[in-house]
Amino acid sequence: MTEILALPVFRRALLALVATGIAFPALGTVILSLELIPARFAVMHSALLGAAVGLLAGLDPLPCALAASLLAGAGIARMSERGSASAGGALGLVMTAALGLSFILFYKAKVDSLQAFSLFWGNILALSRAETAAVTAGSVLVVLLSRVFLKEIRAVLYDRELAAVLGIAARPVYYGLILVTCLGIGLAMRLTGALLADAVTLLPALAARSLKKPLGPTLVWGAVFGLASNLGGLLLAFALDLPASPAIILIGTGIVLALRLTRLPGRGRAKA
Amino acid sequence: MPRPGAEAQSEDTPGDRDLVRAEGLDLGYGPVPVLRSVRLRLGTGEVCGIRGPNGAGKSSFLKACLGLLPPTAGTLRVLGGEPGTRGFRAVLGRIGYVPQGKPPGALRVTVREVVGMGLYGRAGVGRPLRPEDREAVEAALEAAGLADLSETPVQELSGGQYQRASLARAMAMDPELYFLDEPTTHLDARGRRDIAALVGRIAARRSVGILLVSHDPDLLALCHRVYEFDTRRVRELCTSSDPGRVARGKPE
Predict the structure, then answer these.
(1) Which of A34, A162, A48 shows the shortest CA–CA distance to A97?
(2) Which residues, in sequence order, are CB contacts of B95 under 8 Å at separation 6+?
(3) Chain A residues within an 8 Å CB radius of B120
(4) Distance CA B78, CA B86 (A)
(5) Residue B194 near residue B164, CB atoms below 8 Å
(6) Quick check: B106 and A163 CB within 8 A?
(7) Interchain contact, B92 vs A169, CB within 8 Å
(8) How far is residue A61 from each of residues A64, A73, A187, B57, measured CA to CA in Å?
(9) Chain segment A136-183, per-residue pLDDT in tens
(10) Is the CB of A166 less than 8 angstroms away from the CB of B121?
C-alpha cells in the first residue's frame, strides 16, 4: 500500500476522489431538489460533445467539456424559467444529437478507441496535475458556496417563487446553482466519465436524501456517503482488478439500496 | 413582536394611508387577458377580501402585487412602490405573503427554517440570521402554536399546521401588509377556525393591512371591504367600518 501511495498518479487520484466525494454530492442534492434528472443527462452528453470538439481541434478536452457543460446549463436554466426544464422532448433531442455528433467527431478526428473509452468511462488514474487541481478547486468552490449561501440555496430549492417574494435574489442564486452543478458534471467527466458522472453526484445524494433530513444534514450525509463510495470503489477496484468508475458506481448503488432496505416501513423508521 | 413605530401608526385612522392601490389595472398571461380595469384600494388597518370563481384572477392579482406578474395596463402601487421594478425588492421585506397550497418541492425543510425564511432578505446575502431575527422566529412559532413542531419537516405537517407555519413566516417579518391566498382551502373545520383566529389577531393590530383571497365566511367576516372578481371584471361588493356588517351583506 505504501508503494502505491508513493506513486504521484495514485496520490492525485486519491486527492480528487476525496475532494469530489465530499463536495459533489451537494450537486446531486441540487439536481434532485430542482427535479433536473432528465436535464443532467443532457449536460453529461453535452460535456462529451465538448470533449469531442476539443479532441478534433487538438485542444485539451477538459476545458472544452466544461465550456459545453456551462452552455448546456445556461440553456437549461433558461428553459426552466419557462417551466420546461423537466420536459423530456427537447432534452431528449439534445442528448441524442450530442451523442450522434460526438461519434461523428470521434470518427473524423480518428480518436482511438481507448481515448474515446476514457471519455465515456473516465480514468481516475490518468489525471494530470492540472486536471487534479481543477477538480480540487471545483470541489472547494462547491463546499464554500454551499456553506456561505446555505440559507439562500435552501430558500430557492424550497420554492423559487416564494424566495423571490421574500426579497432573496432568487434568479442569480438559481442560475448559480445550475451553472455550478453543470461545472461539476463537466469536471466529473475526467473522473468517472461523461456517462457515469452520477457516481460522484447523484448516488451519494440519493443515499443522503433517503435519511429524510433537512438540507444542512443532507449535505453532510451526502459528503459522508460520497467519500465512502469513492474510497470504497477505489479499494474494490484494486482488490478485484476492476475499472475504478464502475466500482464506485457499484459501491454507491449498494449504499443507496442498503439504506432503502433498512428504512422500509416497519423496519424501525422513527416517524411515518 | 411589533416593529418600532407600530404603536404610533396604530393611532392613525384606519384606511387613511394607501397600502395597495390599483387603478384601471389589466392583467394577462401573454395574449390571454385575466383581469380588466381593476380598481381596488387597501388602507392601513383595513382587511380586504377578494372572492370569485376559479380562474377569475384572484391569485394573479396577488402575484401582480408581488411583482411576479407585470400589468398589461393601468397603475398598481404597493406600499408606495411599483411591483416588479428594481427598487421593489426592498418593499418585499415589508410584505408577509402566504401562498396557497401544500409544501412545494422535494426538499425537506423544518418548520423553524420555513419561518426563518421570512427574514432571509433582511439578514443580507450570505449572512446568517441575526439574534433579533432568531427571537422573532421563536416568537412567531409561539404565536402560531408551532413551538413544539419547530424541528418537524413541513412535509409531515397537516394542512392546517402548514398554513399556520406559512402565517408564522409572515408574522416573523412583522410586515405592514399581508397577502393571504386562500389560507383555509382544503382545511377541516378546526383548521379553518385556527387560521381565522390567527388572522383575527393580526387584524386587531390596526397598523397593518390585510388583503386576503378566500371564500371562507369566518375570514370574510374580518373584512372591511370585499371585492368580487368575476371573469375579467371586478366589483366592490360592500364597504363598512364594521367588518361584521360586510360579512352579513349589509354595507353602510
Answers:
(1) A48
(2) A165, B66, B78, B79, B173, B175, B176, B177, B178, B179
(3) 151-152, 155, 163, 166-168
(4) 14
(5) yes
(6) no
(7) no
(8) 5, 18, 11, 52
(9) 999 999 999 999 999 999 999 999 999 999 989 999 999 999 999 999
(10) yes
For chain B, say whether A83 makes contact (Cβ under 8 Å). Answer: no
Q: B14 with B206: CB under 8 angstroms?
A: yes
- The whole-angstrom separation of Cα B97 and Cα B247 is 23
DSSP letter string, B119-162: THHHH-TT-PPPHHHHHHHHHHHHHTT-GGGTTSBGGGS-HHHH
- Reported ipTM: the value is 0.84
* CATH number for domain A2-262, candidates 3.40.50.720, 1.10.3470.10, 2.60.120.1440, 2.60.120.1140: 1.10.3470.10
Q: With CB atoms and an 8 Å threshold, state whether A165 touches B95.
A: yes
Q: What are phi and psi of A259, to 5 degrees?
A: -65, -40
pTM of the model: 0.85
Euclidean distance between CA atoms B145 and B164, whole angstroms: 8
Closest CA to A71 of A156, A170, A183, A171: A183
Q: Where are the beta strands (DSSP E) in B130-246?
A: 177-181, 209-213, 225-230, 233-239
pLDDT tens for B163-178 read: 999 999 999 999 999 9
A32 at interface of B, judged by CB pairs closer than 8 A: yes
Asked if A167 and B156 come within 8 Å (Cβ–Cβ), the reply is: no
Extents of the domains making up chain A: 2-262
Contact B68 A271 (CB under 8 A): no
Closest by Cα among B188, B194, B252, B190 to B225:
B252
Query: What number of CA atoms fall less than 13 Å from residue B114's CA on the CB side?
Result: 33
pLDDT, one tens digit per residue, over B62-77 is 999 999 999 999 999 9
Q: B153 and A214: CB-CB below 8 Å?
A: yes
CB-CB: which of A33, A148, A165 is closest to B97? Answer: A165
Which of B97, B113, B129 comes nearest A214 by C-beta?
B113
Distance from CA of A162 to the nearest CA of B (A): 8
Quickly count helices (H) and strands (E) in chain A.
Answer: 14, 0
Number of residues that make up chain B: 252
